[in-house]
Amino acid sequence: AGDPAPPGGPTAAPTQPPGDATATPGASGTPSGVTQPIVYEARSAVDGSTNVYTIDANGENMTPLTDDAGFSGHPGWSPDYAQVVFVSDRDAPPGTYDVWVMDAGGANGVNLTNTPDATEWAPKFSPDGTRITYIEIVDGEGSFLMVMNADGSGRQRLAGPYKFAEFPAWTRDGAEIWFAAIEQAKNDVDIYAIAAGGGEVRVEVATPSSDLCPHFTRDGQYVTYATAPADEPGNIDLFIREIGSDDTTGETHRRLTTEPGTDDYMAPAPDSSLYVYLARRESGTADLWLMDGDFTNPRPLTNTPDLLENVPDW
Fold it and tell me: Among 5, 133, 158, 300, which is least packed by CB within 10 angstroms?
């Protein structure tokens, strides 16, 4: 989901977050009862366009929600699953992207930002559905962490400018926003946190590598993120740590994946019985993968050589 991370990073650690031991796998290997589709973006290997899709947890009913020739991606569900927020360059000047919302089925798209002098990325609804956080990129200034009302009003810069910023995530109580960014005086990506109303920015994850794409477990007790493990150049894996941990170095964070390639952008199912994430293997293909709620049994959800999946949200 983010830029490739440089070599170096944390080692596997003993922290053991709780899993959902009650999940009962069905015949397909998918726990029963997960009916909410996953929303994600996929880039066509044929024409280069990127569009928003949904897919069921059993791999069925893959459905495009947009049909744009350029870029429509970075989708996220509203808390009631009635809307999808995303970014698109439809109706925008070349090289710029706006924040849009549409109905869950892809209809009634509305441009919330319409900023020809800026590009927006990675929007996410707040847990109560009243606000949206996102990244604003302004040429000559940098990247800013933003928040606005769900109708596009009341835009506010919370943090920045940074050299680079991406994929903010709300804590489950809506009190804070965590995000990945490169500070002006640094060269690698770390994960930061700030109160949703603004204030002091603090460092949460700062390993020797680039730390990307924070996501929270449904119980709000843990954060997952992606980084390059120590001594494994070119490999990006998923890690997890307690929200209240004071270890920013990654030394005590638990490693969740070990396969060569990239594992990134992990999101939990509504009932915590599954996790979906991006996996890009050495073949260069990018697919969605699933893992059980206790962080075991990784397996592919999609196998689409002509589509490169990314940025899933559940």
Answer: 300
3-state secondary structure of 142: strand
* Burial classification of residue 97, based on how many CB atoms lie within 10 Å of its CB (0-12 exposed, 13-18 middle, 19 or more buried): buried
Q: What integer pLDDT is reported at residue 151 of this predicted model? A: 98
Instruction: Report which residue type is found at 126.
Output: S
> Per-residue pLDDT averaged across 54-58, rounded?
97
- Report the helix count and the strand count for the chain, using DSSP H and E: 0, 24
pLDDT in tens, 175-202: 999 999 999 999 999 999 999 999 999 9
Q: What is the pTM of this model?
A: 0.89
154-178 pLDDT per residue, tens: 999 999 999 999 999 999 999 999 9
* 287's tokens: 């697919």
103, 184, 211, 263, 292 from 258: Cα distances, Å? 37, 32, 16, 9, 16
- pLDDT tens digit sequence for 250-271: 999 999 999 999 999 999 999 9
- Contact predicate 264/226, CB 8 Å: yes
CB-based contact 59:276 (threshold 8 Å): no
The overall longest dimension of the chain from CA atoms, in Å, is 54
Q: How far apart are CA 247 and CA 169, in angstroms?
A: 20
Handedness of CA 63, 67, 72, 77 (dihedral sign): negative
Residues with Cβ within 8 Å of residue 127, at least 6 apart in sequence: 79, 170, 172, 173, 174
Displacement of CA 189 from its chain's centroid (Å): 15
What is the C-alpha radius of gyration for the chain, rounded to an integer number of angstroms? 18
- Return d(Cα 17, Cα 2) in angstroms, integer: 25
Residue appearing with tokens 């993120």 = 225
- Asked if 84 contacts 66 with a C-beta cutoff of 8 angstroms, the reply is no
Residue 19 Cα to chain centre, angstroms: 21
